[in-house]
């Protein structure tokens, strides 16, 4: 999503901001429209599942998609954006709650049928203390995330490995789909105790190395594919992400395990209220 918005937001000015309602998951910030209008985007970043829009005012627009949110981009005068992350936009505007018209010629609509998304303005100097962000663990694609860090975070944990990986304090931004897929690639059971990927001193073992490599690989593959679309999730172009075509286990209950040489069948169980898909034969 960040890659899809960067070409039309970075360096551009908010020419017009329209809020069709005063709240999403929470109320929009006080003076939301005037605090954005006329401001220039100096940078577009991401922290876990939050988009961070740096403004020349010194504030940061912190945005979250929630369960069903998406940003759709349309350009004036029939222009197009080059690259993998932009195609013709969906025409469905029934739930376009916030609209940004940028000096780049783009109109960006935040569409959210369930209104679980959020937008918040935070001073850049206070971003490290922001309650939504301050407790987050390291980024899974960042330099701080490695086998040693993951082993230390899981050391002594009696929870399941699946639950540990979904804990945003352990690693930021991993969701249910990618945890299932990474555990499959690492040949580790989601029911395994989290503590077993570290030795008694909290140092990494072979399982930790396999898992960190698998997490990084599955996320990179998903980004290149434009994400994973389930039901109403969409990319900035209004089209569905392509990564579901590459799912090895997620939503494939009863299908043969895709691991070469494995004769197992994908099973679905429920852990902490979330569906888990895995192969009980080759994931130990």
- Major beta sheet summary: 4 strands, antiparallel
Percent range for β-strand residues: 15-25%
* Backbone CA Rg: 20 Å
Structural class: alpha+beta
The tally of domains stands at 2
- CATH topology of the largest domain, by name, is Helicase, Ruva Protein, domain 3
> What is the level-2 CATH architecture name of the largest domain?
Orthogonal Bundle
With strands numbered from the N-terminus, the spatial order across the biggest sheet is 1-6-7-5
Query: Which residue ranges are poorly predicted, with pLDDT under 50 across at least 5 consecutive positions?
Result: 80-90, 229-242
Number of E strands: 10
Helix content: 10-25%
| N/C terminus separation | 34 Å
Description:
The chain has 284 residues and is of the alpha+beta class. It has two domains: 128 residues, N-terminal domain of MutM-like DNA repair proteins (Alpha-Beta Barrel); 132 residues, Helicase, Ruva Protein, domain 3. The protein is 20% helix and 21% strand. The protein is built from six helices and ten strands; from the N terminus they run αβαβββββββααααββ. The strands form three sheets. It has a four-stranded antiparallel sheet. It has a four-stranded antiparallel sheet with strand order 2-3-4-8, covered by helices on one side. The chain has a two-stranded antiparallel ribbon with strand order 9-10. α3 packs across α6 and α5 packs across α6. The two termini are 34 Å apart.
């Amino acid at each position: 999503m960040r890659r899809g918005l960067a070409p039309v937001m970075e360096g551009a000015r908010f020419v017009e901001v329209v809020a069709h309602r005063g709240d999403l998951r929470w109320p929009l910030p006080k003076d939301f429209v005037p605090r954005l209008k006329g401001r220039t985007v100096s940078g577009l970043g991401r922290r876990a599942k939050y988009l961070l829009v740096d403004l020349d005012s010194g504030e940061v627009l912190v945005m979250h998609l929630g369960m069903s949110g998406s940003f759709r981009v349309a350009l004036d005068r029939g222009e197009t954006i080059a690259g993998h992350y932009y195609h013709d936009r969906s025409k469905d505007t029934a739930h376009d709650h916030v609209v940004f018209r940028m000096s780049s010629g783009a109109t960006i609509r935040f569409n959210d049928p369930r209104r679980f998304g959020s937008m918040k303005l935070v001073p850049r100097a206070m971003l490290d203390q922001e309650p939504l962000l301050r407790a987050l663990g390291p980024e899974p694609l960042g330099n701080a995330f490695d086998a040693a860090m993951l082993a230390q975070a899981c050391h002594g944990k009696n929870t399941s490995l699946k639950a540990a990986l979904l804990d945003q304090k352990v690693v930021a931004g991993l969701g249910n789909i990618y945890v299932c897929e990474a555990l499959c690639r690492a040949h580790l059971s989601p029911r395994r105790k989290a503590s077993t990927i570290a030795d008694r001193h909290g140092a990494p073992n072979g399982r930790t190395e396999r898992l960190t490599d698998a997490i990084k690989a599955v996320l990179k593959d998903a980004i290149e594919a434009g994400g994973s679309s389930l039901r109403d999730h969409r990319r900035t172009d209004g089209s569905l992400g392509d990564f579901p075509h590459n799912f090895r286990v997620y939503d494939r209950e009863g299908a043969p395990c895709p691991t070469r040489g494995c004769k197992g069948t994908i099973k679905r169980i429920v852990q902490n209220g979330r569906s888990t898909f895995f192969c009980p034969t080759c994931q130990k």
